[in-house]
Write a sequence for this structure.
């Protein structure tokens, strides 16, 4: 069965899609069968992997609302072990259309049962809200990764998200847990970034990933080329940081972070990705 991870934070601009794309790509580079589900109507995870969201024949909307078999809308990517379920603006109306649907909070969970055995990891990129789509992601997921930006309002909304997760645990998905908080947009030259890093680690302790995602020009450029960072610039700081994050995810036990991660794991994965990168040129 797949480990289903929702990348969730109702605050926008914190790096959810960047994390969804690049964590999925790094896991796929480690030869883990990985599926990325774009559950955001903006479709940025779709375009970030090189697809024109306006030209996809079927999207996650068709699966959720029209009952189209999810196995028929999987798209292959440049990475052998990575597939994506695309999204586009059709998903805008899904929140309203799901209101009258029976078991509306668990539509995605039931859809994923058809592909659960085909993948090792299923990553869900969620919209910047705590609406029905995010609720569907939390209902389907085993765990949640929360990206938090290293900026002034870093912890804004985390309390609301925790309350939502608690409600989902109580009423729909008792197995749901917080996998970890990943700090994004870290600027080592900025005192505020260091302060936020310290505060988050002090407050949340062992729930925070050791890996920190830096502000990185190459990481920002990669989506415009329709590539994850590891296929755009495998040696960049952004790529290395997502290798490290993937390493922590791979070496975790049931969604609980642990410290005894072999030091050579990232290097081995990076060497494999360099080969993929060279072959794609």
């Amino acid at each position: 069965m797949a480990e289903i991870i929702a990348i969730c934070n109702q605050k926008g601009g914190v790096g959810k899609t960047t994390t969804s794309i690049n964590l999925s790509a790094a896991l796929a580079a480690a030869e883990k069968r990985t599926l990325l589900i774009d559950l955001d109507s903006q479709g940025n995870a779709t375009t970030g992997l090189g697809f024109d969201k306006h030209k996809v024949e079927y999207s996650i909307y068709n699966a959720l609302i029209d009952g189209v078999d999810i196995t028929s809308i999987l798209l292959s990517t440049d990475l052998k072990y990575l597939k994506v379920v695309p999204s586009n603006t059709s998903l805008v109306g899904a929140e309203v259309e799901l209101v009258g649907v029976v078991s509306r909070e668990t539509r995605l969970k039931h859809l994923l049962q058809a592909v659960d055995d085909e993948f090792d990891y299923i990553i869900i990129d969620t919209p910047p809200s705590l609406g029905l789509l995010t609720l569907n992601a939390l209902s389907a997921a085993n765990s949640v990764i929360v990206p938090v930006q290293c900026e002034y309002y870093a912890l804004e909304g985390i309390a609301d998200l925790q309350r939502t997760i608690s409600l989902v645990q109580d009423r729909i998905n008792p197995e749901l847990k917080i996998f970890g908080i990943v700090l994004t947009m870290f600027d080592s030259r900025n005192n505020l970034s260091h302060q936020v890093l310290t505060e988050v680690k002090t407050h949340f302790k062992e729930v925070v990933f050791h890996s920190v995602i830096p502000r990185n020009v190459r990481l920002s450029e990669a989506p415009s080329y329709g590539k994850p960072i590891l296929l755009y610039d495998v040696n960049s700081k952004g790529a290395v940081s997502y290798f490290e994050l993937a390493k922590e995810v791979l070496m975790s036990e049931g969604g609980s972070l642990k410290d005894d991660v072999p030091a050579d794991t990232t290097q081995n994965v990076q060497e494999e990705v360099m080969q993929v990168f060279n072959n794609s040129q």
